[in-house]
Structures
1.
Amino acid sequence: MQYSDRIEKLESEGAFVVLAKARKLEAQGKKIIHLQIGEPDFATPANICEAGVSAIRDGHTHYAPSGGLLEARQVVADYYNKTRNISINGEHVIIMPGCKPLIYCTMEAILNPGDEVIVPDPGYPTYRSVARFVGANPIPIKLREENEFRFLVSDIEKLITPKTKMIVINSPENPTGGILTFEDLEAIYAIAKKHDLWIMSDEIYSRLVYDTEFKSVATIPGALERTVAIDGLSKTYAMTGWRLGYAAMPKTLADYLFTMAINTFSSTATFTQYAMMEALQGPQGGVHKMVEEFSRRRDVIVEGLNKIEGISCLKPQGAFYVFPNITKTGLTSDQFADLILEEGGVAGLAGTAFGANGEGYARFSYANSIENIQAALAQIERVLANRK
Ligand SMILES: Cc1ncc(COP(=O)(O)O)c(C=O)c1O
């Protein structure tokens, strides 16, 4: 049978590939510590679960409007107004089953074949994969360790051509945990305005920040005319399996995404939107506790990695990932990830899973207990020492 040419352009995701390898080893009886996973290990807060279950009991089990329940879109608008200091209404909001479909539909709605999209590298692989899938060319912009894994704004200008149509930013960032400053965001917006570009701002880690405050490009006056600010429940509320994301955008784009939803999944599940309203409007104690615990784990993993010969690790200010430099081990990123998995039972990702500029790095998620993180650190140290 024949398939489309473009289907070959879709990439898998490193975390899922490593998970499959790790599962195979587990099937052979090996114990694996999972530090490759990008999802909180906490339970979804009880008040949110209760709201979802009550919604099912109350009969909210049918189609919703394709862009989201009107009431839910307004709740998201209010949340953005509060967290991004803007003033939008629900017409600027679209709700979808996760941030991923929002990334996908945004690129479909904006990019033509041959258009160029500037994407962070190392960066979340979905951006480049979907950009290629829709026929566009992802142009990597290097995130620099010496700049705390921010890119240099001056590098953006160098990458812009007449074909550039979109800049993707992700702050706090996966995989590095790096955060763009408000000055960076202002400079990015100025460049986007000057060259008439879209900004796709993936803000899914907006609430997972430590020792600093989250800033959104959407806050800059005028920015929302050319910005899609994507966020969702997966990471903030430990709700990866509920599948719920939302984004603020210009109304015309919202109308196009609404039509894309009609033609694909019809609507996001209705009862999860009730749970979302509780998540955004109800008590936030669960989030605060989770952030405190992540902060403790971050300290443990950063300190532990820095004690291992050949590894150095910056202390990230956001998300729940560390991106240690492993060049002094003498191993490539792939060799390092394979070695610690096969010999040490520690599942982490090669930095190259996030682009060519990830060579020389590994990514670990600290969405795991301190006990498991400490055990993983001991294993990594042992495996590297035994190699000599
Ligand atoms: C940067 C980034 N964007 C989007 C997603 C996907 O989020 P969702 O579960 O809402 O589809 C992830 C998940 O790992 C992510 O790291």
Note: The longest helix spans residues 285-307.
2.
Amino acid sequence: MAEIRFASRAASIGKRPPPIVALDAIKLGGGNAFPDLLPDVSAEAADVATLFRTEALQYGPLYGLPELRQEIVRFLTEDGVTANVDNILILNGAKQALDLLLRTLVDKGDAVVVSRPTYLSALSIIRNHEASIIEIDSDEGGMKVDELEAKLRRLRAEGGKLPKLLFEVPDFHNPTGITLSEERRRTLVRLAEEFDFFILEDDPYRRLRFSGEAVAPIKSFDTNGRVIGAGTFSKILAPGIRVGWANGDPAIIGRMAALKSEGGCCPLTQRIVLDLLRSGRIAHHIAELTPVMKRHRDAMTDAFRLHLPEARFRAPDGGYFLWVELPDGVDANAVTLEAERDGVIVFPGQLSFASAPPVNFIRLAFSYCGPDQIERGVRKLCAVVRRQQTDVSAQPGQAEALSLAGRHYD
Ligand SMILES: Cc1ncc(COP(=O)(O)O)c(C=O)c1O
């Protein structure tokens, strides 16, 4: 085969095909939906295919179906966000909002701020755009905005490159599960104003709250078009439906739309989502799903407490993920590889760091498996950790590097 002269952004990624996961593996890796609660949309799909056949099977409007955009505006008001139809762009999901916003605002070499750790797919998308990444540490309250402010002031004083964009998951953060306080949200908007950058507020888990009070979206504190909200039906309905949106200033939304290479998103699935929103089925689905996800979370945290009491984690108040610090000296990469051989899939924490990852974190999704499988999976995983701890030949940090850059996981 001819030698392929890859673009630099493609040269080091995607060298290996995705791993083949055993059919009976316990999947605690990606944030997939719980199969038992995937909604039956056959009636809506049949209606759309008959009543809206000519619309559903044509190219869709570039910005999305006008009625769906209108319905998203209504959905956002429930969270205290004011928008109108001109602010809304229908997308293939929230990840597409990040991709298009990067195309719109960020040139090669421009800086993007993320929390440390952050959503691993966001890191690959940002890297695809050849942006440089500024990581800001997190504590139990999420991104340390004081550290961000100090960094920005330092950069400005030294004539360094200030960021163009900040990416944040403020509610039930992926991977940490933390919700950012109102004070920190307000600080982010103030800093965006002062240092002239934009914020992408990626908020797929907001409605999946098990306990505690909701905090107003970052977008609700934005008076100057600094914040672009990204939303999705992946977590509150079904990821396969691929419908999400961006909510931003029309000047930005217009450019994001113009930079979409596939034209409008699928009108068939948009119309199905529209029907489900209008009939109240999505609200009903969220009400049914939330206590089930809480039970899954409890099964996972109980299993860790029982099988590996030294593991450190914070039980999240919502969302899909548990972020676990394994005992000192345990190599999460090695644990991940061995657990995979034992039929348990988890993600090593290193994927959530842009640089210098610590070795002993793992991310687990409690969304996909039921409580019994979760208990079994965590028990097996903890047995792997125990073996690592007693294996004197284990070299922390020396496990086969998991070359996962460029592969998107959720
Ligand atoms: C923070 C975050 N953003 C976006 C997504 C995925 O969004 P979508 O399926 O709408 O592209 C996920 C899924 O795991 C996520 O955790």
Note: The radius of gyration is 21 Å.
